[in-house]
Amino acid sequence: MMSVVGAQPFIKPMQPSPSVSPGIQRRHTLPASEVRPLNTQDAISVFEIEREAFISVSGECPLHLDEVRHFLTLCPEYSMGWFEEGRLVAFIIGSLWDQDRLTTEALTLHKPRGSTLHIHVLAVHRTFRQQGKGPILMWRYLQYLRCLPNVRRAVLMCEDFLVPFYRKSGFKVLGRCAITVANLTFTEMFYPISGHAYMRRNSCV
Q1: CATH class of 33-192
Q2: Where in this chain does the record put each N-acetyltransferase domain (predicted)?
């Protein structure tokens, strides 16, 4: 698996901490806003947000709890969580895929030699919706992917009503997805990463 050390400048607090004299600095203070890769300890919080966001709309979760743990064990570097004072408020989970289009196997497999980043899920806690956090987190995630030389593009599948949302983030429609879940059908979308060589050279150092 390729190293992601060069991408670390994007995984840092979103707002700088205020300058405080060492003599009066409080101990154990959590950053007001932080973006970092997820780990298995975040799995329950991830699943709770995901379940509330998706069950009420479609009746299905993109990832069940064991699958969340599965991907956060295999490839945590392809996840991203937004935390407010230590509380998870939004997240993305992805894994690598090695084919041009998504198939059912892409829902559960991570292909370390793949060059396509499959975004399994983006979700925002209900308290923090309608604040622009979803698009902001997606933007940061795509910036992060540009720093990974093995990733050439990102793909996702979504219900039709979400297509305009992802278009605003720069995704383009590939067509109908071959995957169906229960009675749900999906549109497959992609975002080219490999075309951003300038960004790679100038922002990933």
Answers
A1: alpha beta
A2: 33-194
